[in-house]
Design brief:
alpha/beta, 11 helices, 8-stranded parallel β-barrel, 12 strands, TIM Barrel
Length: 239
């Protein structure tokens, strides 16, 4: 099971939001490359990068910072505003290893199928769920699309990796929604990366136990707990 430290970028800085609300922002680093270096030194292989400005505007805004993060040697999984092919190609050109498509995936499954046919495992789909429904456009809009059924459909299209985030838990340090993550793992063939609410070593241990039952659990994203020093990344990676 992979551990994905998260770097959320807004206005060029590394921040964390509570439940995706822009008004509930905490700035942790003025330069988002700094935490990337820290996570690499701790032993991370991957980093999960979200362009929050891009998620809201529909087009990535923090290319320079993301390119510098790629230059650290980490494998970068990037999301936020990737709704057009030109920006997806640009992400790959600057060194991003895997892109995460969210809003556009909900709107155009044919678009996703074409991307998967061309780029295979370099394409992931982000499913951000609120009360079991998919949220889009930087979590501003909650759709009528049921998260589990959507995940099943895109898996059938050939999408190999799904990032499943429980919005209600994100940035809250309340602990993950293990029930919903278990449902996703039980019903969907694609690899799942769990996100939202990881706040203790016990949470991570529970995901490790879950991965023994469900080998499709590819990994876990950890964000605020790292920045608040509730979890030491190097210690987690040694477990």
């Amino acid at each position: 099971m992979n551990i994905y430290p998260a770097i959320d970028i807004r206005k060029g800085r590394c921040v964390r939001l509570k439940q995706g609300r822009a008004e509930c922002e905490t700035v942790y680093f003025n330069d988002p490359v700094e935490p990337a270096r820290l996570w690499r030194e701790a032993g991370a292989q991957w980093v999960h990068v979200v362009d929050l400005d891009g998620a809201l505007s529909g087009e990535p805004q923090n290319w320079q910072a993301i390119e510098k993060i790629c230059a650290t040697g980490l494998q970068v999984q990037m999301g936020g505003g990737l709704r057009e092919r030109v920006n997806i190609e640009k992400a790959f050109n600057i060194g991003v290893r895997r892109v995460v498509i969210g809003t556009r995936a909900c709107e155009d499954e044919i678009f996703i199928k074409k991307l998967v046919d061309q780029y295979a495992d370099k394409i992931a789909v982000g499913i951000d769920a609120k009360n079991g429904r998919v949220a889009t456009q930087g979590w501003v809009n909650t759709t009528e699309l049921e998260a589990l059924s959507f995940a099943t459909r895109i898996s059938a299209l050939g999408v190999e990796t799904i990032i499943h985030t429980d919005i209600s838990r994100d940035g809250m340090l309340y602990g993950p929604n293990f029930i919903e993550q278990e449902k996703m793992l039980s019903k969907v063939d694609a690899k799942i990366i769990a996100s939202g609410g990881v706040s203790t070593y016990e949470d991570i241990d529970q995901f490790y136990e879950m991965s023994e039952k469900h080998p499709s659990l590819d990994g876990v994203i950890i964000g605020k707990a790292l920045y608040e020093k509730k979890i030491d990344l190097a210690k987690v990676l040694r477990r």
